[in-house]
């Protein structure tokens, strides 16, 4: 029953947004009163923690499906490039997880933000985090730096994915040129200097690969001597 309740909560978030998720709404979705949920999910916080668990347990199969060792893609994605060079298993696994996170964000854009606002506390969620810790250890990162590196990697990947699907990277209501020309060059000197680049169309797949390549350089610089 707990898994049914969590799946219903995730479905509500997908349909109506995370703010629509409540014990009452989930109860209606599964045909129970809100009170009847409490033996299975003890509170709204426990419900949200369970949704984090569900997202993370969905992430791992997505990563397995994307693993370039299996599907023949370059490690950075279908377009190839520097990210795919080298082929160490730890790096292939990290890239597969990163690409899977982008897919997961596209599938659950509202609920995905929970991964940026709540810790992993349930046993199944901890297993997913442990797998990431192990991959970073396999990269040769010193034990005392693994937790920091995990925070760096997960914040970048999840922040990029959430920004991409929820609009932060979008054009918005004004084009870059229209935004910039609201103020004089003296008031926005960096914007005007960068205008040719800010006005370019962005290939987010290529940008994500380039960012991952930069992170790989950082990780390799941290390897245990």
TrEMBL record:
Please give the DNA-binding region boundaries: 22-41
Does this UniProt record's set of keywords contain ATP-binding?
A: no
Origin, by domain of life?
Bacteria
Show the coiled coil region(s): none
Q: Matching Pfam families, A to Z?
A: TetR_C_1 (PF02909), TetR_N (PF00440)
Residue ranges of domain HTH tetR-type in the record:
1-59
Keyword annotations from UniProtKB, A to Z:
DNA-binding, Transcription, Transcription regulation
Cited InterPro entries: Homeodomain-like_sf, HTH-type_TetR-like_transc_reg, HTH_TetR, Repressor_TetR_C, Tet_transcr_reg_TetR-rel_C_sf
PANTHER family, per the entry: HTH-TYPE TRANSCRIPTIONAL REGULATOR BETI (PTHR30055:SF234), HTH-TYPE TRANSCRIPTIONAL REGULATOR RUTR (PTHR30055)
Name of this protein: TetR/AcrR family transcriptional regulator C-terminal domain-containing protein
**UniProt source species:** Kribbella hippodromi
């Amino acid at each position: 029953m707990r898994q049914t309740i969590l799946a219903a909560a995730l479905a509500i978030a997908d349909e109506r947004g995370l703010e629509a998720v409540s014990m009452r709404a989930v109860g209606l979705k599964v045909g129970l009163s809100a009170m009847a949920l409490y033996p299975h999910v003890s509170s709204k916080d426990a419900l949200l923690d369970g949704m984090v668990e569900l997202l993370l347990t969905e992430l791992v199969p997505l990563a397995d499906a994307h693993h370039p060792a299996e599907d023949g893609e370059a490690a950075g994605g279908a377009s190839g490039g520097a990210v795919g060079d080298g082929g160490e298993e730890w790096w292939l696994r990290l890239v597969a997880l990163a690409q899977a996170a982008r897919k997961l964000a596209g599938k659950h854009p509202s609920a995905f933000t929970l991964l940026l606002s709540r810790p992993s506390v349930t046993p199944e969620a901890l297993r997913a985090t442990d797998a990431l810790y192990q991959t970073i250890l396999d990269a040769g990162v010193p034990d005392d730096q693994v937790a920091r590196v995990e925070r760096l990697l997960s914040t970048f990947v999840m922040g990029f994915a959430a920004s991409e699907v929820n609009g932060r990277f979008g054009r918005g209501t004004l084009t870059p040129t229209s935004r910039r020309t609201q103020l004089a060059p003296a008031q926005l000197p960096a914007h005007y200097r960068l205008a040719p680049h800010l006005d370019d169309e962005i290939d987010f797949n290529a940008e994500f690969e380039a960012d991952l390549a930069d992170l790989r350089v950082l990780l390799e610089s941290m390897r245990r001597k």
